[in-house]
Amino acid sequence: MKELVVTSHNQQSVHIDHDATKVALHIQETPHLLDLVREIIADTDIEGENIAIEKNLGRVVGETTLIETTDDDEIVYAKRLGRDKFTRFVKHKAAQPTSYVTIILHRADEGYNLWSAWCGKLVPTSPGDEDEMPKSRGFWSDHALVFDETIIQSGTATPICPWA
């Protein structure tokens, strides 16, 4: 079921389809995320097919779970809930405050669908993803998400890199 989230500055409708997007888990992690999306989109002209918006709101808006890693960090790979590809995680680290919000929109018949959004900067897709970018492997070799068992599919955690 789709619901209208916000209308952009240039009058484009942005909807959310809770059953067909990747945003549900991010909303669960950050309950005020849709309010931030509304704030940003209402002041933004949007056009094009697939849109990525990274916005610095100039104030702390939440926490980012994306952390730079070193060779001394304990790294594991696991599948997040609702995902079929592995993500790199770091154990024994904490989320960090951020002033950034990233929003991913896809063109739809009635405007745009909110595909994903999170507190933090825009990053390359994970290696192995169907939309993997040339810089994905380099980026994810020294970055990881903070390990949180509540967002991991049971039994998928491994210390072995699945895309090496």
Protein model, in words:
There is one protein chain. By secondary structure, the chain is mostly beta strands. It is 13% helix and 37% strand. The protein has three helices and eleven strands, in the order ββααββββββββαβ.
Write the layout of secondary structure elements.
Layout: E1 2-7, E2 13-17, H1 24-29, H2 33-42, E3 50-56, E4 62-64, E5 66-68, E6 74-79, E7 86-91, E8 96-98, E9 100-108, E10 111-119, H3 136-140, E11 143-146
Parallel strand pairs: 2-10, 7-11
Antiparallel strand pairs: 1-2, 3-9, 4-8, 5-11, 6-7, 9-10
Strands across the major sheet, in which order? 1-2-10-9-3
| Main sheet attributes: strand count, strand direction, barrel closure | 5 strands, mixed
Strand percent estimate: 35-45%
* Gap from first CA to last CA: 39 Å
Helix/strand-derived category reads: mainly beta
Shape: globular
Number of separate helices? 3
Order of helices and strands: EEHHEEEEEEEEHE
Task: List unreliable stretches of 5+ residues.
Answer: none
How many E-type strands?
Answer: 11
- Mean pLDDT reading: 92
What proportion of the residues is helical, as a percent range? Answer: 10-25%
Computed CA radius of gyration, to the nearest angstrom: 16 Å
Supply database-style keywords:
single chain, 164 residues, mainly beta, 5-stranded mixed beta sheet, 4-stranded mixed beta sheet, 13% helix, globular
Briefly summarize what is shown.
Helices cover 13% and strands 37% of the residues. With 164 residues, the chain is mostly beta strands.
